[in-house]
Specification:
Layout: H1 14-31, H2 39-57, H3 60-65, H4 69-74, H5 77-84, E1 90-94, E2 98-101, E3 104-114, E4 121-134, E5 137-142
Antiparallel strand pairs: 1-3, 2-3, 3-4, 4-5
Length: about 140
């Protein structure tokens, strides 16, 4: 807890504002990442988000379009179809990603579904790997 005491000054509210804003700015600086995300990070995050939106909507066609050839080869068609066939209410959480190597980001993901039979929430933890396939096109290289 931060407390400030001061006598009445001609500066008016300035001491009060400093007492409030300095602790806030110091605490928010600790929570910021060391480096600002680059444009590659933003594009990779958008690709991961679009992929997970397709999962949430059960949209196999758009989900498949966001997969690299490597990801399609690693999982057979039945696995991919099962992943996108989700009749239960669902949502997802994407956590802060990290650069694995140039042009490749990994995002921790939580897939959340609710069973309509017994209203039980199920959380599955995965990582989504997104790669730059050229010309700033980004695709999911590993299924959750």
């Amino acid at each position: 807890m931060h407390s400030c005491q001061f006598a009445h000054t001609e500066l008016g509210l300035l001491p009060l504002l400093l007492c409030v804003t300095l602790p806030l700015s110091a605490s928010s600086a600790r929570n910021r990442p060391a480096l600002a995300p680059d444009s590659g990070y933003v594009l990779a995050l958008a690709a991961a988000d679009h992929f997970l939106q397709a999962w949430q909507a059960g949209d196999l066609e758009n989900g498949m379009a966001l997969l690299t050839g490597n990801a399609k080869n690693a999982a057979n068609r039945d696995v991919v179809e099962r992943f996108f066939s989700n009749p239960e209410p669902s949502g997802y959480e994407i956590n802060r990603g990290k650069l694995v190597k140039h042009g490749r980001y990994e995002f921790p993901v939580v897939l959340v579904t609710v069973s309509s039979r017994n209203v039980q929430v199920r959380r599955r933890f995965f990582s989504v790997v997104v790669v730059n396939t050229g010309n700033n096109d980004w695709a999911v290289d590993r299924l959750p």
